[in-house]
Design a protein that fits this description.
single chain, 203 residues, FAS1 domain, seven-stranded mixed sheet, 7 helices, 47% helix
Length: 203
């Protein structure tokens, strides 16, 4: 009798295990179906608004510079020269953006102060000498090429093992430190020197 009771109990346990497995498989299959449907639905709901938001909030050149701490002096100069609205326009423009260290070095070299530099009558000329009409990426540059600036004078491209340089008409060289910063209305290349049009005195 004990043996028969043991066999019966085993059969009952086996049946319960099979029933439990069946229920488990049902819920797994149901959850898999639900999960398989969810990504497609959420993708359709999220992707389009996200893309539109990126288009609407794309930063222009001035906004990009304002969001870059190392370009704070350039931003101040652009505002002082009344160029912020122009560089926020449709463009496209390519801006060679001297960083704060570049402006500090130029102030020392020109034996002036930041206040005096920002008050110069030719400040707009100096800044527009750093602007090229069109969208110029680093891949577009060739060694020895000459590029026209918005100011009217030209810059020469120099590509060496050290890197990419822009050379002004006074043989001052500015190395590209960070290239191809894309904005909604052009491109920014951060450079390590302030380039000067004319005779190099900036006067």
């Amino acid at each position: 009798m004990k043996k028969e009771a043991g066999v019966a109990a085993g059969v009952i346990i086996a049946v319960l295990v099979l029933i439990g497995a069946g229920i488990g498989l049902y819920f797994i299959a149901t959850n898999d179906d639900d999960e398989a449907m969810e990504p497609e639905t959420s993708q359709q709901e999220v992707s389009e608004p996200t893309q539109e938001a990126e288009e609407e909030t794309g930063s222009n050149i001035v906004e990009t510079a304002q969001a870059t701490p190392s370009l704070s002096t350039l931003v101040t100069a652009v505002v002082e020269a009344d160029l912020a609205e122009t560089l926020s326009g449709d463009g496209p423009f390519t801006v060679l953006a001297p960083d704060n260290d570049a402006f500090a070095a130029a102030i020392e070299e020109l034996d002036t102060t930041a206040e005096e530099l920002l008050a110069r009558e030719d400040l707009a000329d100096i800044l527009t000498y750093h602007v090229i009409a069109g969208n110029v990426m680093s891949s577009d540059l060739e060694d020895g090429a000459t590029v026209a600036t918005v100011q009217g004078d030209t810059l020469t491209v120099e590509i060496t093992e050290e890197g990419v340089f822009f050379v002004d008409q006074n043989d001052r060289r500015a190395m590209v430190m960070t290239a191809d910063i894309e904005t909604s209305n052009g491109t920014v290349h951060i450079i390590d020197n302030v380039l000067l049009p004319g005779d190099g005195s900036g006067a």
